[in-house]
Automatic annotation (TrEMBL):
Protein species of origin: Dioscorea alata (Purple yam)
EC number: 2.4.1.222
Keywords: Glycosyltransferase, Transferase
Protein name as it appears in the record: O-fucosylpeptide 3-beta-N-acetylglucosaminyltransferase protein
Uppermost EC category: transferase
Length: 491
């Protein structure tokens, strides 16, 4: 409009009448727009008044300045967490071993919530104390899911002091406590948080929502969020009676409160079938917080005779250096013309590849598992790579065998990993197989990692690998922080 008016004004042969008509048209259009705008503003402000009759009873819902974090300066520790374990009195005695792996009597707060009084005589003092959940039979066919969903509220109602977080888990959830404390310590517990992780199997998230913290992996609800949830839970559960799990119901109720899931990749539902190996050997650069479904996957350390023994071995290593548990480091070895790639998953396993594999592949889980519900090849919420690569080649696997602490410098751990029998002497057409297949064990020396490192930007550590000159059968790996600007580039 302005352009055309301007061109008419400045054109050499303009016509006075045309110009005048244009000006009149412009003024009318401007007038019409103003009238429409003014009446719209009037309507919308009266609409605001109309829809919010009680607004003046509350403080300004849109304060000009939102107050900053009010987190207490005292760091979060184990005493600030209340655990709520969903269990049933019929199966507790078969399952309790998993809780006993991580529960520290006298140091921790919380309860196992049972459906009825336990049948057997005395309750073991190696377990969390128990309580019997309130009757939830009014919630229909899947009332047990509502019972488990109410544990947060029932734990809140117990009224323990100095509580910052409520952490829920199943009777077969294993927590890595120092890492749980480090993760929760990152968040301001005076605000409303819902922290956990969805399933590894996409099919599970499609069915039960990516916004659900899957309950077996455990999840954390901050005190203020638990307080709000406790107020609304009963009415809310009535609305979601048709939902399958307790975790989905919790999510639906938190959604009514407007509290979204904050994802922490260290919580593991382990919705996998087969061998969880590939996932555990390529953990994200984040602290390991939990594991679940351990009765449904292969023994994590195959040389142990039961899964419970295997997990106990993993947890014994974890105690030496909790923050480093399952953390990956990659190094390359070119001694004697080798092209070896070494991937350490600390406290668990080492993979030796007798060819060069770049870091962006080593950090991708080997697919040793299938999906949870339909036992398919995927998809998962992360990438995977096949276990057997070209030329029939598989990495050589080493599993944790021993943990020793250096007495002089307690700040260093030494873990030893021995070659898994089934991966010895597998045929492979790639050069270098013969010399690599001589290696029988790998020894990893690592400084203890500060758990507070997890409150900084995540970065993988670096390492160096040397084969022992006198004895070709051992590789020594030293883990350390990377030097400034250091890159782990394949040779
Ligand atoms: C945990 O922190 C509280 C302060 O909130 C402190 O009083 C207590 O001693 C700490 N407990 C442990 C086990 O460090
Ligand atoms: C290592 O890689 C180099 C270059 O790619 C190659 O020339 C050499 O033969 C390899 N050595 C072995 C033992 O495979």
């Amino acid at each position: 409009m302005f352009l055309s008016l301007k061109s008419m004004v400045f054109s050499a042969d303009y016509n006075r009448d045309t110009l005048w008509r244009s000006i009149k048209a412009t003024i009318s259009i401007v007038l019409i727009f103003s009238v429409v705008f003014i009446s719209y503003s009037a309507v919308s402000s009266s609409h605001y008044q109309w829809s919010c009759p009680h607004c003046d009873q509350y403080p300004d819902p849109f304060p000009a300045a939102i107050p900053g974090p009010t987190a207490s300066p005292e760091p979060t520790n184990i005493s600030h967490i209340v655990f709520g374990i969903g269990a049933s009195s019929h199966t507790w005695h078969q399952r309790r071993g998993y809780s006993e792996l991580w529960w520290r009597p006298g140091e921790m707060k919380g309860h196992v919530w049972l459906d009825e009084e336990p049948k057997r005589g005395s309750w073991p003092d190696t377990c969390p104390p128990y309580r019997v959940s309130a009757d939830t039979s009014r919630y229909g066919a899947r009332a047990s899911a509502s019972r488990i969903a109410r544990i947060v509220a029932e734990s809140f109602a117990v009224g323990m002091e100095n509580v910052r977080w409520f952490v829920m888990g199943d009777d077969d959830t294993v927590f890595f406590i120092e890492n749980l404390v480090a993760v929760l310590g990152k968040y301001d517990h005076d605000q409303m948080w819902y922290i956990g992780a969805p399933s590894e199997s996409v099919e599970q998230n499609l069915q039960h929502s990516y916004g659900t913290a899957f309950g077996g992996g455990g999840f954390a609800i901050s005190y203020p969020a638990a307080a709000e949830l406790a107020k609304v839970i009963d009415g809310c559960l009535d609305r979601y009676i048709h939902f399958y799990g307790s975790d989905e119901r919790i999510r639906a109720c938190l959604s009514e409160l407007g509290v979204p899931l904050t994802r922490e990749p260290g919580f593991h539902q382990v919705d996998l079938r087969g061998d969880a190996y590939g996932m555990l050997a390529a953990h994200p650069i984040a602290p390991l917080v939990s594991l679940h479904h351990l009765d449904d996957v292969h023994r994590v350390i195959p040389s142990r005779s039961t899964q419970m023994d295997a997990i106990r071995t993993l947890m014994d290593a974890s105690r030496q250096d909790p923050a480093r548990t399952l953390q990956q480091t990659f190094c390359y070895n070119r001694e004697q013309g080798h092209n070896w790639s070494v991937s350490v998953s600390w406290g668990y396993t080492v993979q030796l590849y007798h060819w060069v594999v770049p870091p962006h592949d080593l950090e991708v889980p080997l697919q040793t598992f299938r999906t949870w519900r339909s036992s398919q090849n995927g998809p998962f919420v992360f990438n995977t790579r096949p276990f057997t690569v070209s030329h029939n080649c598989e990495p050589m696997l080493f599993f944790l065998d021993r943990v020793s602490e250096r007495r002089k410098a307690q700040q260093v751990s030494v873990t030893e990993y021995t070659r898994h029998e089934s991966s010895i002497d597998k045929g492979c057409d790639r050069a270098g197989f013969a010399s690599a297949s001589q290696v029988r064990s790998i020894r990893v020396v690592a400084p203890k990692m500060d758990p507070y490192e997890w409150q900084k930007a995540p970065r993988r550590h670096c390492c160096e690998a040397r084969s022992k000159v006198s004895n070709e059968k051992i590789i020594d790996v030293w883990i350390r922080h990377c030097y400034p600007g250091e890159i782990t580039s394949p040779p």
